[in-house]
Amino acid sequence: MPLLEGKKALIFGVANHRSIAWAIAQALASEGAQLALTYQDRMEKYVRDLAKKIPGTEVIACDVQQDDQLDSAFARTGEIFEGGLDILIHSVAYAPPSELENPFVQTTREGFHTALDISAYSLVAMARRAAPLMQARGGGSMLALTYMASERVMPKYNVMAVAKAALECSVRYLAFELGEHNIRVNAISAGPLNTLAARGISGFTGFREHMGITSPLRRNIEQSEVGDAALFLSSPYARAITGEIMFVDAGYNIMGA
User: Fold this and answer.
1) Which segments are annotated as binding site for substrate?
2) d(CA 206, CA 237)
3) Which helix (H) or strand (E) holds 142?
4) Marked catalytic residue, from 147, 173, 237, 252
5) Looking at the whole model, is its pTM more than 0.70?
6) Residue 250 lies in a domain
7) Number of domains in the chain
8) Which end of the chain has fewer CB atoms < 10 Å from its terminal CB, N or C?
9) Cα separation of 234 and 89, whole Å?
10) Annotated binding-site residue numbers for NAD(+)
11) CA-CA distances (angstroms) from residue 22 to 74, 107, 138, 168, 222?
């Protein structure tokens, strides 16, 4: 029997075929999960085209900065999945390009607010709405995507690093508060991947090449490897794991340089 047969998963963050969220969607579907993918208006066509590749996948409009749209998205999720939800994937992050180009000391108040709102607070907002749906199913798994710049300086990552630190702290507090309802909350800290978001960071290509040389496995990672890790964390095999940040980076995080 497929590992996730009968499980219902809501995935935020699919933008195109290179998205980490898309790799996770494919991994979950391969083990029997029924999916719903959200989209921003400007990404609707791409998300709908991808959804067609996995039979039975639903698509839901949602701008994570709008509470009314979050309310509608989770209400629609409840309708699609008959009142329950097992898996929530948060693969959402954004900072205005200028905040990644200018020195960190020049971070604007507006840019800081935008990055933290979209990249970190959105997890809290989603969790609050997902929890009742998961409780109806006897528990569930929430999973976010982060990056090691939350702990170490990665030039030009700037305010996004602060947002990832806030996201990781949120994972721990949510894990603590929702644990009594058998809801687990974890994050994957993935190595650099060629995604739409990563291409907006100056020096990304050089750092990816450096990681491929320096990491213990002497290579870079692939989107599918993050998808497989997400599958594990979303499955019964990880039933005693919560509040954790799992590195999927070919071991790069253990290195001193």
Assistant:
1) 95
2) 36
3) strand 140-146
4) 147
5) yes
6) yes
7) 1
8) C
9) 9
10) 13, 19-20, 40, 63-64, 92, 164
11) 20, 31, 26, 21, 12
157, 173, 237, 252: which one is catalytic? 157
Task: Check if 147 is active-site.
Answer: yes
How many CB atoms within 10 Å of residue 146? Answer: 25
Average confidence (pLDDT) over 102-106: 96
Q: Write out pLDDT tens, residues 8-42.
A: 999 999 999 999 999 999 999 999 999 999 999 99
Residue 218's Cβ-count burial label (10 Å; 0-12, 13-18, 19+) is exposed
Residue 1 lies in a domain: no
Asked if residue 209 belongs to a domain, the reply is yes
Note if 46 is an active site residue. no
The pair of structure tokens assigned to 215 is 């990491």
Taking a C-beta distance cutoff of 8 angstroms, is the pair 50, 35 a contact?
no
13 contacts 40 by C-beta, under 8 angstroms: no
Binding residues: 13, 19-20, 40, 63-64, 92, 95, 164
CA 209 – CA 192 distance, rounded (Å): 10
> Which CATH number is 29's domain given?
3.40.50.720
User: Does residue 2 form part of some domain?
Assistant: no
pLDDT digits (tens, 9 = 90+) for 53-103: 999 999 999 999 999 999 999 999 999 999 899 999 999 999 999 999 999
Coil vs helix vs strand at 208 = helix
pLDDT of 54 reads 97
pLDDT category of residue 198 using cuts at 50, 70 and 90: low
